Amino acid sequence: MDSDVASPSSRASSPELEEAGSPELLPGAPRPQQGSGEPGPGGGTPRAGREEQAGEQQQAQAQRLKVNSRERRRMQDLNQALDGLREVMPYSQGPAVRKLSKIATVLLARNYILTLSSSLQDMRRLLSELHAGPRSHPLPQGRPMPPAAAAAGYLGFRPAPRETPRTAAGPLGPVYRHYSGLPCLCSLCQPVPAPSCLRASK
DNA sequence: TAGGCCATCTGGTCCT
DNA sequence: AGGACCAGATGGCCTA
């Protein structure tokens, strides 16, 4: 909830755009990059030609601003969606905890879903076994104990407690922590192919 | 100070 | 033609 959903940006890095006024072409953002320099050096056109050119430039500029604005909005929507995802993720949230990075959020969400699916399957199997034979032992002898408790933990998941038994300084960074009593969701403990950008390289 | 993360701009591509 | 999506580039902020 404390996320930056409402604010235009979560980081101070974003050059505060004047929402209503002139959003584009920020004062401190002269983008000299990419050879998008003036297209026409002015091929000897007289006054009329120059005015026409200026008009075209203005039009192109306006079009650019529009595209930029749309793109900005698109990215903000994406970030909102990510914030929504963070809100339901099992990691401690609060002012003292840094926000999960985007990539960590996505990876964690995937593992979370996988774990929930697995737990759900176990629960269903348990239920069907219970219904099948009332007198029989709910758990076959040789079978490894299903993580029923863990599943229950997930199904009735509460915001993680303060205590953090051990930390994972892995791909998910210092933000994510392992919690006692809950199967780990991080990519260290789950077979999730970590993208190259996350592989420990230093 | 280096590296991580991020927001933004921009050009390209694809789709409607 | 216009919009959505994507990826590369750039520069700012923050932390170890």
Automatic annotation (TrEMBL):
Instruction: Tell me which InterPro entries the record gives.
Output: bHLH_dom, bHLH_transcription_factors, HLH_DNA-bd_sf
Q: Where is the composition biased (Low complexity)?
A: 1-15, 55-64
Gly residues bias: where?
A: 37-46
Q: Which BP terms from GO are recorded?
A: axon development; positive regulation of transcription by RNA polymerase II; sensory organ development
Q: Which GO terms describe its cellular component?
A: nucleus
The molecular function terms of the Gene Ontology recorded here are: DNA-binding transcription factor activity, RNA polymerase II-specific; E-box binding; protein dimerization activity
- Looking at the record, the residues that make up the BHLH domain are 62-116
Q: Report if keyword Transcription is assigned.
A: yes
Task: Name the Gene3D superfamilies on file.
Answer: Helix-loop-helix DNA-binding domain
Keywords assigned: Transcription, Transcription regulation
Region: Disordered; residue ranges are: 1-73
**Name of the featured protein:** Oligodendrocyte transcription factor 3-like
The organism of origin for this protein = Chelydra serpentina
